[in-house]
Specification:
disordered N terminus, five-stranded mixed β-sheet, 45 helices
Length: about 1000
């Protein structure tokens, strides 16, 4: 086959045209002695060109010819190959798709004969045929050879398109069943005395149980054992365990013929820690008392495959009722979805984009979605109880549980993805679910799926398209039929029955499914553009609501917002077109009462949740003050001005609470904020800045109405407590002091009257009942408390503090910071109190003892009757009071010589004390963690209940919502309370040492 130098032979060109990537090597192989007589036969070249990898197919054929036993055998193979198209297509198809099966044929050159038969029954062999194919195996090695021979026949019909992907998977499951039976027969023959003692049944789970196995997959099983009549149960179980373990080794161990596949029994009760074999009664007791939701999901595919058939059927009959009751378990849907998320989270980052099975839009998404629907509706509809994914999907569509169009798209995507998985594994018979990266591997894979024009690009495009369909459909598959249940459907389209819709809503966590259906009907029925957009949005929103502790409240609030804004053009466009807005809204509406209440009073604030509209980033105090002062200037009177300022406050409270909720819950694109302290600082800073700006605006409004531009006295507001410390929560009052100083030439009485009128009017206007939340201004920390004058001059404060100030007052001044009014007066007030709160000589022992006595009295008097002190976030052991008084004692003692301690903020002071060596790094971390957690608890209670509180709620749904805010999944409220107690206990031990220990 030589050609002139510089010119390529006609054969070279033909080989290129037939899909060979290395025509030169192919020419040399065709010139080999074994192919001399057929090398120019167009039938052979056409057949090779039709394979997934013509180069690989030709190499395999040459190897197979070389190992034939003599010239006669080689000629028989060649003659049959040329004359019999079925054999030609099958044999070359396998050789072009699977290096592993080519290796098998090279080791067992006569096995090509199994591909010659072409009878109707050969097209779809079943369990009996496979059992006959394995019957001659009398040891693990011969079993492997027989298994590969049977596998060869499946692969040949698969790559030729004689059977489609679901049939291939079913045949692989039948072959696995026959193999397990043969392995058990070998194990029994090796230990007849064990076999005589027990009855042993092998139950397949997973893909083998579902009749949808891969080429290379773990075969998931559980073993059930019973004693034969008259035998001791313990001895029988030990015998059954030895048989089961031997069966597993026969299939799993590597021999000269390799292994078959691992037999995995880790889905059994207690997993690897549980006994390999249990009695039926033991299985039943475990599932009735201890099993988790995912274990019932695994049992959905349970099928007896080997051993004692009666015992296997008893097992399935006993456990199946429990499977179909699993959806009644608390947090059922959340548990299933959490398991799916955990699978995705455990995929190595480098593999996630290549994962065909576990990644987003992969096979597992389809399987999980289908199984979830089966478990919810299979209780009342036995037609759904199939272990096979595609059969179950078909039944779900027929019953109206899934839209027909959605089911058809998922069916198509699942078949394509499974075909890819089969062909990837078939190449080397290795267990993998990763799409290859090598160009040659991708080319072979694409061609094996009949993608012959630009196979690599077409394969990748089709894969991404199908994965995108799965990603889009797999979650809303659960929710869209709920809308169809209340909407008018096309003729012939099955709908979810009212009872099925009720079942699904209950499974999602809705306490009032009837009301939920009414809300869905109101939102999605009709032919308007609004209803059409809602039908698009709601399937996804329902999933986000279900991910909260109170789906009912989320859906109801969404209906109210939609009723208020439904005719506003931008509202639905915002939710539909801006990726973050819809999810942010769902999180905010279902997290508790506060944020929805704030939003209902001005629904247009929903625009803040989008990518534009200012976003959820809190605004600076200067920005807020500027906006409020501008609103006051535009107002006709003080009432209008303060009303405008309170409206801004309400909007900004919503912005802050929404940012806090979204940061705490996380979104699909942005994980929850890992730094809990950052969220606490965000809320404390934003609410404190907002309160200061509101007071500044209100002060301007009152002065403007009563005195014009200038008040007869300089006037400043000093923030105290959490306000001065930039640590306000959503429900905090504004603790303040009022200080004034008459202007030159103004009588002191006139100045005092003006200052008192300002204070009284400010407090009144900020508490006038309205749609906006009130701002309570509390001046009880002033000198002499409630008995003292509400407003004092700077000179009066100086005289009082010089002569009469008590320890608690000096203590309270640690948090004093000017927040509004005359800046110079506020600065001079700060200069006045600094020597008091940071005494140059520190604190004497008597003063320290007085502070300790004061704290103890305060806790005993103020702790609510009946409250559990260990769970009281403010006054309980290790709570806010403990941490703050400990830090403040350090400030009083060392603030004069440690500048870092001269701050009103608890966390900053704690960090400064650590930096100064006044507290160890470990102790500081313990106190900081406890303070942050206690603050988060108080914020959570306000967000969830809509009113302030210092203890965990007792209502289960409210407690669950607090848990979700704090990062605990459904059903883990107990873990949250335990964690709080542990954190507080550690903090209290530090407080005992630092605050009460005299250090």
């Amino acid at each position: 086959m030589t050609s002139a130098p510089g010119r390529r032979s006609s054969t070279f060109t033909r080989l290129l045209r037939h899909g060979f990537t290395d025509p030169s090597a192919a020419e040399r192989l065709l010139d080999s002695a074994g192919l001399t007589l057929v090398r120019n036969d167009p039938v052979l070249l056409d057949a090779l060109g039709a394979t997934a990898d013509p180069d690989l197919a030709l190499q395999g054929l040459v190897r197979l010819l070389e190992v034939q036993d003599g010239a006669t055998a080689r000629q028989e193979l060649l003659d049959t190959l040329i004359a019999a198209k079925p054999l030609r297509d099958r044999l070359l198809g396998v050789l072009g798709a699977s290096e592993a099966l080519a290796d098998h044929l090279a080791r067992h050159p006569g096995d090509w004969q199994t591909l010659v038969t072409y009878e109707p029954r050969d097209l779809h062999p079943g369990l009996e045929e496979f059992e006959r194919g394995l019957a001659g195996a009398d040891d693990p090695v011969s079993l492997r050879v027989a298994y590969r021979r049977c596998l060869l026949s499946i692969a040949a019909r698969d790559v030729c398109g004689t059977i489609e992907v679901a049939q291939t998977a079913a045949e692989l499951a039948d072959l696995a069943t026959a193999t397990l039976r043969a392995a058990l027969t070998l194990a029994r023959a090796a230990a007849p005395e064990d076999a005589a003692l027990c009855r042993l049944a092998v139950i397949a789970l997973g893909k083998c149980g579902g009749h949808e196995l891969n080429y290379v997959s773990d075969v998931d099983v559980v073993f059930v054992g019973e004693a034969v009549d008259g035998a001791d149960e313990d001895k029988a179980l030990r015998a059954a365990t030895r048989l089961a373990a031997h069966l597993m080794r026969i299939c799993s161990e590597t021999t000269v013929e390799g292994s078959i596949w691992p037999v995995d029994a880790n889905l059994r009760p207690e997993g690897r820690n549980g006994p390999l074999v249990r009695t039926l009664a033991s299985h039943l007791a475990y599932y009735q008392r201890w099993a988790k939701t995912w274990e019932f999901q695994a049992l959905l595919k349970a099928r007896p495959v080997a051993g004692d058939p009666a015992l296997g059927e008893e097992y399935v009959a006993a456990l199946q009722p429990l499977v179909w009751q699993a959806a009644e378990r608390e947090n059922f849907v959340a548990d299933v979805q959490k398991m799916r998320r955990r699978v995705v989270e455990n995929i190595p980052a480098a593999e996630i984009d290549r994962q065909l099975k576990l990644g987003p839009g992969g096979l597992r998404d389809v399987e999980f979605a289908v199984q979830l629907l089966q478990l919810v509706h299979g209780r009342s509809d036995a037609s759904l109880r199939s272990g096979t994914t595609l059969d179950a999907l078909k039944a779900l569509a027929a019953g109206g549980y899934v839209g027909r169009a959605d089911a058809a798209q998922l069916d198509d995507a699942y078949r394509f993805l499974r075909s890819m998985e089969h062909r990837i594994q078939l190449h080397r018979l290795r267990r993998t679910h990763l799409v290859p990266e090598d160009e040659a591997d991708l080319r072979r894979l694409g061609r094996s799926l009949e993608l012959r024009t630009d196979p690599v690009a077409t394969l990748l495009r089709e894969w991404k398209r199908h994965a995108s369909v799965v990603r889009r459909l797999h979650e809303k598959l659960f929710y869209r039929p709920l809308l169809d249940a209340v909407a008018a459907l096309a003729p012939g389209e099955a709908r979810l029955s009212a009872e099925a819709a009720r079942e699904r809503l209950i499974a999602l966590g809705y306490a009032d499914p009837a009301a939920a259906l009414r809300h869905l009907e109101a939102l999605a029925s009709g032919v308007t553009r609004k209803a059409a957009i809602q039908r698009t949005l709601l399937p996804v929103l329902l999933g986000w609501f279900a991910d909260s502790a109170d789906p009912d409240a989320g859906l109801l609030a969404f209906r109210k917002v939609s009723d208020a804004l439904g005719k506003t053009p931008w509202y639905l466009r915002l939710l539909r077109d801006e990726g973050a807005a819809a999810e942010n809204l769902a999180r905010v509406l279902s997290a508790g009462r506060l944020a929805p209440d704030l939003l209902m009073r001005a629904p247009e604030a929903v625009a803040l949740l989008g990518d534009g509209g200012g976003g959820l980033e809190p605004r600076s105090r200067a920005h807020l003050e500027q906006e409020m002062l501008a609103a006051v200037r535009r107002a006709d009177n003080a009432v209008q001005g303060v009303t405008a300022a309170r409206g801004v406050r309400r909007r900004e409270l919503f912005r802050t609470s929404a940012a806090d909720i979204v940061g705490s819950y996380g979104t699909e694109s942005q994980p929850a904020e890992a730094d809990q302290g950052a969220l606490v600082d965000l809320v404390g800073g934003a609410v404190s800045d907002l309160t200061a700006a509101t007071l500044a605006g209100t002060l301007r409004a009152v002065v403007r109405e009563g005195w014009g531009d200038t008040l007869p006295t300089r006037f400043a507001i000093i923030g105290m407590g959490r306000f001065g410390g930039h640590e306000l929560g959503y429900g905090s009052d504004a603790d303040v002091l009022f200080v004034h100083e008459p202007r030159d030439g103004v009588d002191e009485r006139e100045a005092a009257e003006a200052a008192n009128k300002v204070v009284a009017e400010m407090r009144r206007l900020l508490q006038v009942p309205s749609a906006d939340p009130p701002l309570i201004v509390d001046a009880d920390l002033r000198p002499e408390g409630k008995s003292g004058p509400l407003v004092r001059t700077l000179r009066s404060y100086e005289a009082y503090y010089r002569r009469w100030s008590l320890a608690w007052e000096r203590h309270a001044l640690l948090r004093a910071e000017p927040v509004a009014g005359d800046e110079d007066l506020g600065r001079r007030f700060t200069e006045l109190i600094d020597p008091l709160r940071y005494p140059a000589a520190g604190l004497g022992e008597e003063a320290v003892r007085e502070i300790r006595r004061l704290k103890a009295r305060m806790e005993s008097e103020r702790l609510p009757r009946g409250a559990d002190p260990k769970l009281h976030a403010k006054l309980g052991p290790g709570g806010l009071s403990d941490v703050e008084w400990t830090v403040q004692l350090l400030q009083l003692r060392h603030g004069a010589r440690e500048p870092g301690l001269r701050t009103t903020r608890t966390r900053q002071a704690l960090a400064a004390a650590r930096a100064a060596g006044l507290i160890s790094e470990d102790d500081a971390a313990v106190l900081d963690e406890a303070w942050v957690l206690a603050t988060r608890v108080r914020n959570a209670v306000m967000l969830v209940r809509g009113r302030a509180g210092d203890t965990f709620p007792t209502v289960p749904r409210e407690l669950g919502a607090v848990g979700r805010y704090l990062g605990y999944g459904p059903g883990h409220a107990g873990d949250m309370l335990d964690a709080y107690r542990r954190t507080a206990r550690r903090a209290r031990s530090v407080v005992e040492e630092l605050f009460y220990g005299g250090s």
